[in-house]
Amino acid sequence: MKKLKIAYVGFGKSTNRYHIPYLKMRDNFEIARVVTPTLMKNPEAQLALEKTGTLFSTDIQDIISDHTIDLVVVVTPAQSHFSLAKQLLQAGKNVLLDKPAVEKLSEMQALVSIANEANLFFMPFQNRRFDSDFLTVKKVIETGYLGRVIDIQVHMDHFRADDTIVTGSNFEGAFYGHGVHLVDQMVSLFGSPEKVQYDIRSTRQPLSTVDDHFAVDLFYPNQLKASVHVTESALVPYPKWLIQGTKGTFIKQDVDQQENDLKAGIMPGTSGFGEDSPQAYGHLTYLNQNGDRIEKYIPSESGDYGRIYDTAYETLVNGADKLITDAQMLRVIEILEGGFENG
């Protein structure tokens, strides 16, 4: 079995929470290098990796000049994503780019073009395609319980009271930060929408220039509307998922548990990691072939953010199609950028 040699650019919270714990569960990857602006900022994590042979440095040229590296994963502040990804692709490196990948469609087009011309792997890190709740929703839709889906809502609601005036770019707001995942989930389920309508606001402090609230509707053929919502002002949140079809309804109240476990220091491989309790299962109501009303709870699928690495491995080693197509990644950024084109 071929081992892929991974290099990370960035060694902050995201790298150590959403990336490395999942690689530790897989024996077909080796973390060969890490480039970070500040060495020993997280000494415990750095020393643990150095014991396994990982080389740390502060210069990205160390990755560029290392011809044994199979894949570079960029996990840095979003404003640096485009320039770093472009530099790495132009140097002949395969790149997995953390979210939000870039701000502008033109930037994504440029990166896709460079990668394709050089026959390189390039893909955004859309780990929430492997949220347990999303995988469960996908299964429920595919089984046909709901009939033809006509309305699907997904919410990422919090209550984080804060009246601080926040100024910055659109790239720093909730629509880019959270919407990138939710829009990608809808695009992966239903394809490219025909029309998009936006409601993007700063609700906690109206003088802020950075959004913290959005409700965006994606319209598809056959009278399907997919709505993605985020707010920081929901003391009582909506259900995470609410789906209405011509033959049924599915409601899932709670979010994927992986992130909660990771924040609590519970790592992948631990018994019960990321698992829903039966009380958190989604509730399905549908009409069977006899027209009888049936209600049941659907056990949650197993989520695993590391599966995005599995798909990258299959593409790089076995020639499989990429999990996220170029058309999908371009359309997602186009939708995000479109939310601010008039402002």
UniProtKB/TrEMBL annotation:
SUPFAM superfamilies on file: NAD(P)-binding Rossmann-fold domains
Domain Gfo/Idh/MocA-like oxidoreductase C-terminal intervals: 138-341
GO MF term set: nucleotide binding
Domain Gfo/Idh/MocA-like oxidoreductase N-terminal residues, every copy: 5-123
Pfam families in alphabetical order: GFO_IDH_MocA (PF01408), GFO_IDH_MocA_C (PF02894)
Superkingdom assignment: Bacteria
Gene3D superfamilies: Dihydrodipicolinate Reductase, domain 2 (3.30.360.10), NAD(P)-binding Rossmann-like Domain (3.40.50.720)
Similarity comment text for this entry: Belongs to the Gfo/Idh/MocA family.
Protein name, UniProt field: Gfo/Idh/MocA family oxidoreductase
